[in-house]
Amino acid sequence: MSLTRAQTAPLVPLDGTAPPSAPLPALALSDLLAKRHGMVLLDGAVLPNLTDMLEADGVEHHSLWGEDDDTVPFGPWLAVLDPANPFTRKLFTRSDAPWHLWGRSRPVFLHSPAGAELVAEHLKPFVRMRDPEGHVRLFRFWDGAVFSGYADATQDRPERLHRFFGQWRGAPLIPAFWTPSPDTSDTLVAYRLSALPDPAAPLLGPVFDAEDLQNFRVAADRQMLARVTDRLAKGFGNFGPDHGGQPATYADGALKFIRRYGPGQSQDIEQDCIELAMLAFLLGPNWSTVLNGPLMRETMIPISKRIAMLKQSYLTALATTPLPEGTA
């Protein structure tokens, strides 16, 4: 058994002014839609009035929340994708209109010949997972960023993902999942199992062990580094030889330093990573010397405080440095 990961061709969503007769976007999901086996996981907490839209358009939909209370509309939903239903068109249309949903969330697409009701019952137990200490954790796999992050972190351990694909009549219950690419929501990434595992092998249940938790941390760090790198690239236009690397170099170095010398002391690790990476860029060749200093490695001081002290020191030094002659 192995997991395959492949990107689809870029998807061009419908424009909000497109006529009702305009064809749906051409993408790798077209055969899925044609077979009427296509489904989508949607987040009721991100898409306002989602259940009202599904009911108004007569879409078959199932709650994965598993609890009958007032929070159900804001939980995860599995909806059937019917190409003839107006909701499918709304899902693939982008505009400022609140009923056009493309780009407002990161849905997870899937298909299964077994039907939506069986798929929903299969996925419900994974909404709330237990960790090694017995605590219940919400696993937001219906968010494409979460699903793809976990899938990418476990590519070498397909048995970790097999539980989400399930099994039905000697084949995967869900043959494939598609999620928006981490780089652009208009490109999808397809995840498929090449074959079922050994039937005698135990199937993992809705429990996260220590390896799972580490995989989540790796996935979260990867996504955070992408955001930090993007911030750096936009904030500083010139990453030349004088600065010793590209934005990703500074982002990765800052995060590794924070993870090693500031465990459990950061209330906002992403903001700390941005601040430290920006300072590293501004310090240029001197940044590694500064990070090796005793102050920055003093773990008794919270990492956020150390970064703030370094920033103040840099600004003070900058303010007291004489300007070159002839500079106004």
User: What share of the residues does DSSP label as strand, in percent?
Assistant: 5-15%
Q: Show unreliable segments.
A: none
The sequence of SSEs as H and E is: EEHEHEEHEEHEEHHEEHHHHH
Number of helices: 11
Oligomeric state of this protein: single chain
Q: Biggest β-sheet, characterized?
A: 7 strands, antiparallel
What is the 3D shape?
globular
Domain DUF4123: 40-153
Protein name: DUF4123 domain-containing protein
Pfam families: DUF4123 (PF13503)
Organism: Primorskyibacter flagellatus
Structural write-up:
With 328 residues, the chain is an alpha+beta fold. It folds into two domains: 3-208, no CATH class; 214-320, no CATH class. The protein contains eleven helices and eleven strands. It has helices at residues 30-34, 50-56, 86-91, 116-123, 144-153, 158-165, 210-235, 247-261, 269-283, 287-291, 303-320, and strands spanning 3-7, 14-15, 38-43, 61-63, 76-80, 93-94, 108-111, 128-130, 136-138, 176-180, 188-193. It has a seven-stranded antiparallel β-sheet, with helices on both faces. Strands 2-6 form a two-stranded parallel sheet. Helix 8 packs across helix 9. The radius of gyration is 24 Å and the shape is globular. It starts with a strand and ends in an 8-residue tail after the last helix. The model has no long low-confidence stretch (mean pLDDT 82).
